């Protein structure tokens, strides 16, 4: 009990001793007790339009995810305190990250206050590629420049095809936003090949869209997958060879680059169709780029990784194999199949996966993400687009430059953002 309450109690007691009306005692005490509450309830910080939520524990305010190394100042976006209290920081206050920051919340009557220490979490590296360098395959794992297993979480862009709706998001600003606001560390440029408006119809337009994402990822220090987004790549092997020779020449010296030479083969033979195609394209890439990882699709929409494990590619090093899943269809049976393939010695890469969609309550996605984490697998969610379908991360008409606030994200977008934000710890 503080001195002011004691003082009021005493004055009221004296008053009561001298009169016959004690009913004001309780009212006075209750009123003062209420005004003494001075708690911080929630707190948000903002850096370059991205909101960093904070958790509060005792007298500590801790950011839920890291700021970029280059961040010097951060703005108070929202602060919620108990009623009848005021804070020493206001919405719009700018905080210097280099200084220890204190936050004082004081009751309206000035009697009690609580002091909070603000703890800034800042990355220790300029970018994820700066931290991990050139990725390599070591046994059944993807490892970094220090030979330590690496697991990345990121986003696949939508098909590049002309007039398919996803190309408006093929922008450097979107890559920047995914890095800052989603904690995305890998992006995938999905260059459509055979279908209408794809690479075979319009090589320059599709390739230029892909290059915007690749160049932005290199500039931002993210990993990037150059994806030959095809279901029939064996029908156009010469085109794939020509394209990947050009990509290896342009980008083969950058540690950021991962080649994905066949998105999703259909129901075709690994041994007699996919593997020979892959060996031809790999040979062309390796003549120019000896070391960046090449990921190879597997039969039946990149689920039959067991067939690749039974007959892996041995003509080159640094080969990984594609595993795709959509949580509405693919469950424990596919995780068991994939684990058996890894146990046989091949490395897997989840270059594309999808949530159940339209809800954040997705237990199968939770199981898949735990499994990916346990097995150090990297993954990119489908897809950066506003098409009205369950996997799009933003709502129809969302800003094509990024900077999406919460109400522009779909349920799938909110779920995958929360996964990406927490993945690198
Ligand atoms: Mg290289």
Q: How is this structure best described in words?
A:
By secondary structure, the chain is an alpha/beta fold. The chain is 33% helix and 24% strand. It has an 8-stranded mixed β-sheet. α1 runs antiparallel to α2, α4 runs parallel beside α5 (203-220) and α6 (237-251) packs parallel to α7 (270-286). The longest helix is centred in the middle third of the chain and has 18 residues, at 203-220. The chain starts with a helix and ends with a helix. Residues 1-32 have low confidence and may be disordered. Bound molecules: magnesium ion. The site of magnesium ion has 5 residues, from loops. Magnesium ion is lined by residues 252-253, 289, 291-292.
Largest sheet: 8 strands, mixed
Molecules bound to protein: magnesium ion
Note the total helix count.
12
Helical residues, percent = 25-40%
What amount of the residues lies in strands? 15-25%
Pairing-aware structural class of the strands and helices? alpha/beta
Query: What is the 3D form?
Result: elongated
Compressed to H and E, one letter per element, the order equals HHEEEEEEEEHEEEHEHEHEHEHHEHEHEH
What is Rg?
Answer: 28 Å
Major sheet strand order: 5-7-8-3-2-1-4-6
For the residues shown, what is the average pLDDT? 92
Distance between the termini: 43 Å
Low-confidence stretches: 1-32
Number of strands: 18
